[in-house]
Amino acid sequence: MCAAVYVLSTVTGYVLTSALLLKCPTLLHRKKRENFLSQHISHRGGDAVNLGTDMLELDCQLTKDEQVVVSHDSNLKRATGVNTQVCDMAYSELPPYLCKLGVTFQRECFCEGGEDKRIPLLRDVFEAFPNTPVNIDIKVNNDTLIKKVSELVVKYDREHLTVWGNASNEIVKKCYKENPRIPVLFSFPRVLQLLGLFYTGLLPFVPLKEQFLEIPMPSIITKLKDPNRLTKSQRFITWLADNLLMRKSLFEHLTARGIQVYIWVLNDDEDFQRAFDLGATGVMTDFPTRLKDFMDRNGISKLQ
Ligand SMILES: *[C@@H]1O[C@H](CO)[C@@H](O)[C@H](O)[C@H]1NC(C)=O
Ligand SMILES: *[C@@H]1O[C@H](CO)[C@@H](O)[C@H](O)[C@H]1NC(C)=O
């Protein structure tokens, strides 16, 4: 009897404490300092800066002569028509971009390029947009790449304007080790851990090194593929992932701890609305103008 009461009160205490700290995490954790708050994140594209985007998202690779370039693909066939790896060529040898480039998550959408078809260096982006926060995906597990990116970030005095990472936890750990002053993303294994902690009620007690959670909205899969072509089990998994991941109480807890939540890659009003309703900090989009219009129409402004 006594033991039962003890267990019951302990469990109740745990549940209550967890619930309290879920709502008020700063009772236990110092809120992370946020140097910038991005609501409008452009999935590629410098024009978006003129539009007032809060953040650029880009991918980095290393050339043979150890220059950091901005390129999504490690093989350049799709973007340039030349079948070669970025890491096999010196920067000066890299082929220019094709005129017509498929760029979005949705089918059949092309970007007719501008004048300059050169594959940019990370340095060029830093010089062109000295005050725009940049989200850097480290595309290759290469220590030199990580070191060089850190050096550039430091050189251009952008530690406070940068977040970096990869889905691989190994890469994120290396990034954090290389320069812990640059905020990191949750890697994929860490997202799973985060969910485990959240659903067991442990999350409020656990310190987190990451400062950015960037996750897809699983339900958009039905928009990318022809929904009829998804099998029943694929549809179920999508539904389940969506329900597990898109949790307002999770997002609110994280943002109260100073961890920003970005959801990608959303391209229509319905999904923009859902993300902001769920308490996401920001939305990553292929269509900066569309998101800007949506935010203007709905009075979503910098002040939260
Ligand atoms: C990293 O990239 C450089 C340049 O492409 C290359 O020389 C080096 O071998 C790579 N290191 C690893 C560990 O892959
Ligand atoms: C993460 O790194 C792997 C290589 O280790 C790469 O294939 C992948 O595209 C990267 N993902 C992101 C989101 O940068």
Automatic annotation (TrEMBL):
<dbReference type="GO" id="GO:0046475">
    <property type="term" value="P:glycerophospholipid catabolic process"/>
</dbReference>
<keyword id="KW-0812">Transmembrane</keyword>
<dbReference type="InterPro" id="IPR030395">
    <property type="entry name" value="GP_PDE_dom"/>
</dbReference>
<feature type="transmembrane region" description="Helical">
    <location>
        <begin position="6"/>
        <end position="28"/>
    </location>
</feature>
<dbReference type="GO" id="GO:0008081">
    <property type="term" value="F:phosphoric diester hydrolase activity"/>
</dbReference>
<keyword id="KW-0378">Hydrolase</keyword>
<protein>
    <recommendedName>
        <fullName>GP-PDE domain-containing protein</fullName>
    </recommendedName>
</protein>
<keyword id="KW-0472">Membrane</keyword>
<dbReference type="InterPro" id="IPR052271">
    <property type="entry name" value="GDPD-Related"/>
</dbReference>
<dbReference type="InterPro" id="IPR017946">
    <property type="entry name" value="PLC-like_Pdiesterase_TIM-brl"/>
</dbReference>
<keyword id="KW-0443">Lipid metabolism</keyword>
<dbReference type="Pfam" id="PF03009">
    <property type="entry name" value="GDPD"/>
</dbReference>
<comment type="similarity">
    <text>Belongs to the glycerophosphoryl diester phosphodiesterase family.</text>
</comment>
<dbReference type="GO" id="GO:0005789">
    <property type="term" value="C:endoplasmic reticulum membrane"/>
</dbReference>
<dbReference type="GO" id="GO:0070291">
    <property type="term" value="P:N-acylethanolamine metabolic process"/>
</dbReference>
<dbReference type="GO" id="GO:0004622">
    <property type="term" value="F:phosphatidylcholine lysophospholipase activity"/>
</dbReference>
<feature type="domain" description="GP-PDE">
    <location>
        <begin position="20"/>
        <end position="295"/>
    </location>
</feature>
<keyword id="KW-1133">Transmembrane helix</keyword>
